[in-house]
Amino acid sequence: MDGCLTTLIKLFILGLLFVSGLVMGYLYYQGVFDPYLVEYTLRRLDPVAPEEAEKRVDARATVEDACRNFSLVDRRYVVWPGTLTDSRALTTELTTLTIRSASESRRLFVAYYSGSFENLGIRLGDQIEVLGQARKVWVPAEDREGRPYPQVIAIRVRKGSLTPGAAPVPAGSPAPPRPAAGEDKGSRQ
């Protein structure tokens, strides 16, 4: 009888560990730990000024490369343009940005921005440019098929023109006029 009781206690403890693992996994997937994971990654980075990061940018590191194999761009400084599709505040000082790539509209990437995002004057649908370090942050960010989105720790986010060689539009400047409904873009003069 004594051996049966110890076996039941062991099974009870293992059952509690299993259930707590399920609960923790669910909370992780729901994003409860996202702010802590992003802050942990930010603390591990060396502070780099935007001017210094611009000098270190690897122009060959593209969103497409990151989608194919993230290890090709991991820990490299990148400048990725795109259209802001979603923003979510993790804390008062951390914002998650979901951005549709400018080069291929099916590709999305996620940028984690530390700082006051509201002062930049960027809204959903704006074309932006993200300067940052491509980095694997242990935050669930994946598409419907379960493929992870490339992730960037943003050093600078600004409104920008997506045409090659064009100067970026400074933050806070008015957006260019959009064509009216039914109006062809080519009919404007």
What's the gist of this structure?
The chain is of the alpha+beta class and 189 residues long. It has two domains: 27 residues; 126 residues, Nucleic acid-binding proteins (OB fold (Dihydrolipoamide Acetyltransferase, E2P)).
SSE order and pairing:
Layout: H1 2-30, H2 34-44, H3 50-55, H4 63-68, E1 77-89, E2 94-101, E3 108-114, E4 127-134, E5 151-159
Parallel strand pairs: 3-5
Antiparallel strand pairs: 1-2, 1-4, 2-3, 4-5
Care to describe what's here?
The structure is a single chain. The protein is an alpha+beta fold and 189 residues long. The protein has helices spanning 2-30, 34-44, 50-55, 63-68, and strands spanning 77-89, 94-101, 108-114, 127-134, 151-159. The protein folds into two domains: 1-27; 34-159, Nucleic acid-binding proteins (OB fold (Dihydrolipoamide Acetyltransferase, E2P), Beta Barrel). The protein has four helices and five strands; from the N terminus they run H-H-H-H-E-E-E-E-E. A hairpin with a 4-residue loop joins strand 1 (77-89) and strand 2. The longest helix has 29 residues, at 2-30. The termini are far apart. Mean pLDDT is 80; it is low at 162-189.
Order of H and E elements: HHHHEEEEE
Query: Averaging pLDDT over every residue, what do you get?
Result: 80
Helix content: 25-40%
CATH superfamily of the largest domain: Nucleic acid-binding proteins
> How would you sum up the major sheet?
5 strands, mixed, barrel
- Whole-number total of structural domains: 2
By CATH reckoning, the class of the largest domain would read: Mainly Beta
